[in-house]
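Q: Could you fold this chain for me?
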Amino acid sequence: MTSESIESRLESLGIILPGSSSPAARYVNCVIVNGLMFVSGKGPSGQPKGKLGSDFSTVEGYQFARSTGLEILAVVKSALGTLDKVKRVVKIQGFVNAQPFYEEHHKVLNGCSDLMMDVFGERGKHARSVFGAVSVRDNLPIIIDSIFEVEE
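A: Sure. Below is the predicted structure, expressed as structure tokens.
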């Protein structure tokens, strides 16, 4: 990645971040410990409800994961003031609300992973894991939590 600011990068990609969403219960959006920012689980904007494999296709799930990535970036920007303080995307972990027979969880989470690579370039390479869930809060199709290395 060049010395281009992340804000400029977002603009060139045509990405407008939503406002930072509020936690759904008694917790905070993120915590920074020793240069690592742990972002609480977020879901896609618009609060769609349903399961992959019955209510939604893998292609729709990919878009939900991308939308969730935008929600995550909004939280990070709100906490740091700028995404330029992100040194690295460390880990993305997804929980896909899916039917028991559904097998494309990894393709769904690619929506978030691809976004992080598009926005941060080499700094966007991350470890990740994805799980199928029989249910998630509010019947969202996906919940993603994440870890970033940041400048404090």
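A (continued): Residues 69 and 112 are 5 Å apart (CA to CA).
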